[in-house]
Amino acid sequence: MLLSLRSASPMADYTIKNLQDDVEDMAPKFGLSPDIEAHFARDPLECNKFGLSLQRMAPNVRYAYGHHHKEQEEVYVILEGSGRAKLDDEVKDVKQWDAVRVGPDTVRCFEAGSDGLTLIVFGAPKIEPQDVEMIPNWWAD
Questions:
Q1: Contact yes or no for 123/73 (Cβ under 8 A)
Q2: Is 98 part of a structural domain of the chain?
Q3: Backbone φ and ψ of 42, nearest 5°
């Protein structure tokens, strides 16, 4: 006799989306395309407690702005490529499978290396757009 340790749920609560195909690339709306892709999946995935995005950067591209948050902590996971992260006044090299946790107050910006950079970004708690402050031209050489 088989016993199930999991109770049957009348309505399973889940969402499946392909981050590349099902989530709109918002980079063109912000003038960042074709060098950057930005697929923000928080709303398409119906997330209640966190945000998630897939971001791709062409080789040797740097975001044109830094940013920080009032509340949201973020983790950037490098899926492909390498590059650098500027975290306040420090610049750190990053490579595939590095995970970079950044507290809300730390200004951050990423730059792709010669092989480009693909990131998954997790942010919590789920925030409203006014939580973020964008700082144009923050990382200047």
A1: yes
A2: yes
A3: -55, -55
Is it the case that residue 9 has pLDDT exceeding 80? no
> Which pLDDT score, from 0 to 100, does residue 128 have?
79
Q: How far apart are CA 23 and CA 39, in angstroms?
A: 6
Q: What is the pLDDT of residues 59-94, one digit of tens each?
A: 999 998 999 999 999 999 999 999 999 999 999 999
Q: In this structure, is residue 111 part of a structural domain?
A: yes
DSSP code of 97?
A: T
Provide the pLDDT for residue 2: 53
Please provide residue 8's backbone torsions phi and psi, each rounded to the nearest 5 degrees. -75, 135
Where do we find the tokens 């700082």? 135
Peptide bond into 125 cis (omega under 30): yes
Is 128 within the bounds of a domain? Answer: yes
